[in-house]
């Protein structure tokens, strides 16, 4: 049997040395030759049998002195950031530098355990980080260590058995129509109600509206075509890119209020072009900055918070104008599938999870309407 095994056993004084080829290093490509010494020949033979079994079945672990920090950088730069959007890569790189590298960067890759990861997540909870942030950290650890297993640097992934906190959907803070009217009065006074009217009644994302061009707006047919979004990265700065999901490419029907708002916006921009002449950078944007170029999403957010404060309203994220529109549609009896398509959610389940807070109200209304319909039928009979 020993003749069929790869490797050799040779006596060395009062002991026996096993020498075997452990494949090639995943980074350098060099052959990895290993030796091990045992007191008896039987122990050496048993070890060589076990090593061959692991090598033949792809479960042999290459011992490496590489630290997690060194490994993570190589994995992130050569693998991960090439498979995700640039904005996602920058966000995850920032997360890793702030959280993962300070905690695990100096540790040997093979020394990280499931228990340590659980303690790490627990510490982040104690530091008041959100479950969403901790979940992102867990995903990063899992993805990176999955590749370490594939490269033969780890025998198993400790993150697979780790337990990050559960993501409990939070009820989104929204504005009802009275609060919206209160905000709109202030927005009108500061001359920017057109953007917010479009946002509130279409559910368009901030980046989608700031990247919207007139060629994608059909006021006669009352349609807006969403096929790009404004994004920012360190390398490309502000730029237009495709939405991150296929479902985000969509056509939104608009009503008279939005048509009126967009018509006013077009008139404002035409007047601005005449005023600035060659100083106006015409990118065909519906909601540009004062000189026709891209308006920074962060500046738009600051503007929204300022108007909210002036209106005397509780601050909500700008994104929640989108939630407000969806909630009102659902309460008016619009089918969830229609809301999903209008808002560009990846699937119906996503929409249902986000707007689950509306379901109890709809259920109560359905119960009343069902009984009323039944009673009305009996009265006719």
UniProtKB/TrEMBL annotation:
<dbReference type="InterPro" id="IPR011010">
    <property type="entry name" value="DNA_brk_join_enz"/>
</dbReference>
<feature type="domain" description="Tyr recombinase">
    <location>
        <begin position="170"/>
        <end position="368"/>
    </location>
</feature>
<dbReference type="GO" id="GO:0006310">
    <property type="term" value="P:DNA recombination"/>
</dbReference>
<keyword id="KW-0233">DNA recombination</keyword>
<dbReference type="Pfam" id="PF14657">
    <property type="entry name" value="Arm-DNA-bind_4"/>
</dbReference>
<dbReference type="InterPro" id="IPR002104">
    <property type="entry name" value="Integrase_catalytic"/>
</dbReference>
<dbReference type="Pfam" id="PF14659">
    <property type="entry name" value="Phage_int_SAM_3"/>
</dbReference>
<dbReference type="GO" id="GO:0003677">
    <property type="term" value="F:DNA binding"/>
</dbReference>
<dbReference type="InterPro" id="IPR050090">
    <property type="entry name" value="Tyrosine_recombinase_XerCD"/>
</dbReference>
<keyword id="KW-0238">DNA-binding</keyword>
<protein>
    <recommendedName>
        <fullName>Site-specific integrase</fullName>
    </recommendedName>
</protein>
<dbReference type="Pfam" id="PF00589">
    <property type="entry name" value="Phage_integrase"/>
</dbReference>
<dbReference type="InterPro" id="IPR044068">
    <property type="entry name" value="CB"/>
</dbReference>
<keyword id="KW-0229">DNA integration</keyword>
<dbReference type="InterPro" id="IPR004107">
    <property type="entry name" value="Integrase_SAM-like_N"/>
</dbReference>
<dbReference type="InterPro" id="IPR028259">
    <property type="entry name" value="AP2-like_int_N"/>
</dbReference>
<dbReference type="InterPro" id="IPR013762">
    <property type="entry name" value="Integrase-like_cat_sf"/>
</dbReference>
<feature type="domain" description="Core-binding (CB)">
    <location>
        <begin position="66"/>
        <end position="149"/>
    </location>
</feature>
<dbReference type="GO" id="GO:0015074">
    <property type="term" value="P:DNA integration"/>
</dbReference>
<comment type="similarity">
    <text>Belongs to the 'phage' integrase family.</text>
</comment>
<dbReference type="InterPro" id="IPR010998">
    <property type="entry name" value="Integrase_recombinase_N"/>
</dbReference>
